[in-house]
Design goal:
Blueprint: E1 2-14, H1 15-19, H2 24-27, E2 38-50, E3 53-57, H3 67-71, H4 81-87, E4 97-99, H5 105-108, E5 112-114, E6 121-123, E7 129-132, H6 134-141, H7 153-162, E8 165-167, E9 178-183, E10 190-197, E11 200-204, H8 227-241, E12 246-249, E13 258-264, E14 267-274
Parallel strand pairs: 3-4, 4-7, 7-8, 11-12
Antiparallel strand pairs: 1-2, 2-3, 5-6, 9-10, 10-11, 12-13, 13-14
Amino acid sequence: MKLHTINTGYFKLDGGAMFGVVPKSIWQKLNPADDNNMCNWAMRCMLVETGDRLILIDNGIGDKQDEKFFSYYYLSGDDSLHGSLRKLGFTAEDITDVFLTHLHFDHCGGSVKWNSKRDGYETAFPNATYWSNEAHWEWATKPNAREKASFLKENIMPVQESGQLKFLKEGESLMPGFDVKFVNGHTEGMMLPVIEYKGKKVVYCADLIPSAGHIPLPYVMAYDTRPLITLHEKALFLKEVTGPNHVLFFEHDPKIECAVLEATEKGSRLKESFTLGSL
């Protein structure tokens, strides 16, 4: 098995929204904001190369929205989803599985693209099985008013219409060595891959802990639908993953890809950081 980082670019989100109740005087030291209170964030995905399968975990914001939509998020950087795949010698046709932690637009926007006539949509990975779960799919396709702007139909419905969609059940593994942890504070049924790799467990943190700056318990995003549940889930999660046997992979941290945590008097804290490729 090989694990690869797939960089899809950077975008900006409001710092207050990203750090919730934590005051700006504290969080701005972690990720300084611009004059509009916007902080820069990565959209970092992962490619799992194993046997005859090539599994893409999340796929960024995509490129099919209009200029007005993208203007809200200040996209930047030279990386792109398909450019990063090409650097590794792969194309969209090579992907066998697309694992979607959840269906917010910055995690699944690359799932779907314009068709050749630009009069409709088609899946961006024609030979892949797309993985979600029933509870989250129901949540995303019948969204509450608070999350509706994050669940875009054009990112979601073409996957179902293609016949490429399958659901995982809680407690089910995608394959041996690729387990899945379900959490419900950020959004219903978010799935976190836990991958056995080189004697360690690499945990794809998605939006439970979007960056290294979100490791302390109170650092919960205002985007979370159930922040107290997130707090509880984080506490259990950090207890489980703190120590040398687990590696955390951060999807949104603008600088840090991976980290190992250690226990301190203040709780779990970052011990060391490194790139996925250095494992």
